[in-house]
Specification:
Elements: H1 4-31, E1 34-38, H2 44-49, E2 53-55, H3 62-67, E3 74-77, H4 81-92, E4 96-99, H5 106-119, E5 124-126, H6 141-149, E6 153-160, E7 163-165, E8 173-175, E9 180-185, H7 197-221
Parallel strand pairs: 1-9, 2-5, 2-6, 3-4, 3-5
Antiparallel strand pairs: 6-9, 7-8
Helix pairs in contact: 1-4, 5-6
């Protein structure tokens, strides 16, 4: 019979292994793939400044996490079991994770994220349709984060030629190894510090539209239509 302390150690070891093997799988998939990146050149100065907030759909996180590994970004990840898997992989990739969501534990998590972006000059990242959707609909947390920090939101998405599309709520895509991938940066969304509720909603709609545009563009490039 395990003691509570032994159970905690066993659970922590399990999650560390999940993170390690998850990272190795992601590395294998994309190190064997041909990755084409679109829209990065105009953003090179911003990327070097580290003053940005990435917005990534829940189903399109894998390649983005690979491209940005080691950047020490602060990423908001839900406290769900799925979130734990994502968090452990991101940590193994050299990122910081802030646990919570815009609905559950959100205020404290967003406050910590703001502190990391301001005090430590971390890039930020949010999955705006996580942790449970609705799919491809932006929740307002990322807009408030941009307003409080003054950092622009950088939409990023991707697709690949050969993929497995899961039947989950987000229609998560898993590229096969040795395939072709296209990662696309969208137009920046800036949120004024004095934005009123109507202005914030307009920014939310603009981000949602831009994320959907670049996602559909990447899918169409490979002949996919993912409903």
């Amino acid at each position: 019979m395990l003691t509570p302390n032994q159970k905690r150690k066993f659970t922590e070891l399990k999650w560390k292994l999940v993170g390690t093997f998850g990272k190795l799988l992601v590395d294998f998939i994309f190190s064997t793939s041909v990755i084409e990146i679109r829209g990065q050149k105009p953003l090179e100065g911003l990327l070097k400044s580290r003053k940005y907030i990435m917005a990534i759909w829940h189903s399109r996180i894998l390649l983005v996490s690979y491209v940005f590994k080691g950047t020490n970004a602060s990423i908001l990840v839900s406290r769900s079991d799925d979130g734990e898997i994502i968090a452990r992989i991101l940590q193994a990739q050299g990122q910081k994770t802030v646990r919570g969501s815009t609905k559950k534990g959100g205020l404290r998590a967003v406050a910590r994220l703001i502190k990391n972006l301001r005090d430590h000059r971390d890039p930020g990242a949010i999955i705006p349709d996580g942790p449970q959707g609705p799919r491809f609909q932006v929740q307002p947390g990322v807009i408030m984060l941009a307003k409080k920090t003054g950092h622009p939101i950088m939409p990023v998405s991707y697709s690949a030629k050969k993929i497995k599309v899961f039947s989950s709520w987000d229609r998560f895509i898993l590229p096969y190894p040795f395939t072709r991938c296209r990662l696309v940066y969208g137009k920046l969304i800036s949120v004024p510090a004095d934005a009123d509720p109507i202005g914030l909603e307009n920014c939310r709609i603009a981000l949602e539209s831009e994320l959907n545009r670049i996602t559909k563009s990447a899918d169409r490039h490979f002949g996919h239509q993912i409903d």
